[in-house]
Amino acid sequence: MEIQKGFVDSIGNTPLIRLNHYSDLTGCEILGKAEFLNPGGSVKDRAALFIIQEAEKKGLLKPGGTVVEGTAGNTGIGLVHICNAKGYKCLIVIPDTQSKEKIDLLRTLGAEVRTVPAVPYKDPGNYVKVSARIAEEIPNAIWANQFDNVANRLAHFQTTGPEIWEQTGGKVDAWLASLGTGGTFTGTAMFLKTKDPKIKTIVAEPFGSAIYNFVKKGELSAEGNSFTEGIGNGRITENMKDAPFDDAIRISDQECLETIYTLLRKDGLFVGGSTGINVAAAVRLAKELGPGRTLVTVLCDSGARYQSRLYDKDWLATKGYSIPEI
């Protein structure tokens, strides 16, 4: 067995898991990239690593420096792990609407955490804009800027996409993923298109995201809202620019819930809400395309980060939902 040299070298090369229940149901191979098995527990470990490495290469991040970021949680968790491994400090600005599990974990890992009210991006108090201002005020600090720093999507162009291509033996009919920053979807889609332009690259979005209508109609507009965290956006980030959007599928919170509980009860996979959006979209597309296709999506993180919400009957009841009977 190969020995990995520390946390950083352990990022990536995650398994591609056949989702047996949904694959058997549709007659397609529905495969999930098991990003919850990254050492920091999510797909965002990849972007966090590339952002820090890029800053080091450019001489922007020096020994003893601080990495500042505005995040819904997972990128921050990846950043603080890597900062610990490399000897940097980490300061995270996070909306106070995010799960207690993620906020508590950031503090446990050693990040300085500042919670702010959840307000739209145009508001100066938006968590992303607050983090940018803080980074300017701290000596020897960088702003990770995950939304508009294209080192994010480069991580997926150079690692996630090639891994999927190799793991499937080049047999991919569709790639589907939800968008937060857009890095995972875009970087992976761009790579796969270089290998086979016929691969369908499909956006999976919750209600409340403007990206669905952007792909469908060319306009940034949104309807409804969602309890999902870390995905759904109201603008085109730098990581989304020139993305090969072939189509978009919108998934309701109820479908998301039914999907994550089905994955848990039928496949033993304990995953978060963004994964529910991704897999539900893949199942819908599989039914549209018909049997015999290979569809790949991403299993973003563990359900452990949402136990007090998506897996808590009392919290669900406050949103008008109940635990699905599977």
UniProtKB/TrEMBL annotation:
One of its GO terms (molecular function) is cysteine synthase activity. Its cofactor is pyridoxal 5'-phosphate. One of its GO terms (biological process) is cysteine biosynthetic process from serine. Keywords: Amino-acid biosynthesis, Pyridoxal phosphate, Transferase, Transit peptide. Transmembrane segments: none annotated. It catalyses: O-acetyl-L-serine + hydrogen sulfide = L-cysteine + acetate. Pfam families: PALP (PF00291). It is an enzyme of class 2 (transferase). Pathway: Amino-acid biosynthesis. Its EC number is 2.5.1.47. Belongs to the cysteine synthase/cystathionine beta-synthase family. SUPFAM superfamilies: Tryptophan synthase beta subunit-like PLP-dependent enzymes (SSF53686). Coiled coil: none annotated. Residues 10-301 form the Tryptophan synthase beta chain-like PALP domain. This is cysteine synthase.
